[in-house]
Amino acid sequence: MLVTLFCLVFCLALWGAGALWQRCTAALPPVPQFPGSLFPNVWDQLLTLAFICFFTAQVLVKDAPGEESGDLSITAAVLLLFSQVLVYAPMLARYFSLPRRPRPALGAGTKALMVIGALAVMYTAAGITEACGLNEWLMRVTGCPDRQDVVQALSEGGKPVRTATIALMAVLQAPVCEECAFRGFLYTILRRYAGRGCAMVAAGLFFGAIHCSLPQLLPLAVFGMVQCWVYEKTRSLALPIAIHMIFNGLACLALLAGME
């Protein structure tokens, strides 16, 4: 709960301070912005603000005393899938309707190295936190679960419809929606007001925090930062979405195979 609030305040502080600095000094944001020169406008920023506040509130409610996650039934899984799509729908519609700007020409080999590198960084960060005992210490001190509810539900198996719905969320819905929201909107806005470095850190931390698993916060935050870097280099969500799909797909296969 406190971590999520810290990440929210950090994002808003960078956003507000950068906007105030540019206004007071008459400094212009770096141009050209991508994916469009008029993005993000004030409505895009209000949409992003509503998005991060909504998910922060969702995490706070989830972590409130007396709240139990419970089992994820088939109905709950389907409703969660559609509700998530509806929440992200305005961002998806806005982002993918924007005019495209010229993108750097990257070969297949370069893109493959980016995919391998992003996955390697994520797994390395997860391995380090596990090896040094950080995950065990966090679970012991805070009493938090080591997995997200969706991950736990997938690992438990159950009815094929339920498993398929959860896997669909993880492999298709989550990568598209989350990359659009966190890289396409949040990172781009923070980049405009706080620069690339701070924007990557802030967007990565918030990405990790909303997954509601404190032991996985650091690896997911690192993964989020790497995804921002890939988005910066490609100026497109295509490769970050592909990396996210591959990572979630491998995790689902491992869970279904009983490897975790």
Summarize the main sheet: none
- Care to count the β-strands? 0
Q: Note poorly predicted spans.
A: 66-70
Report mean pLDDT, rounded to a whole number: 81
Beta percentage is under 5%
Helix content: over 70%
Number of helices: 10
Distance between the termini: 26 Å
Question: Structural class, from helix and strand content?
Answer: mainly alpha
Protein model, in words:
The chain is mainly alpha-helical and 260 residues long. The protein is built from 10 helices and no strands. Helix 1 packs antiparallel against helix 8 and helix 8 crosses helix 9. The protein is globular, with a radius of gyration of 18 Å. The two termini are 26 Å apart. About 2% of the residues have low confidence.
Keyword list:
260 residues, mainly alpha, globular
Q: How would you summarize this macromolecular structure in one to three sentences?
A:
By secondary structure, the protein is mainly α. The chain has helices spanning 2-25, 42-62, 74-95, 108-131, 134-142, 149-155, 160-194, 196-209, 217-234, 238-256.
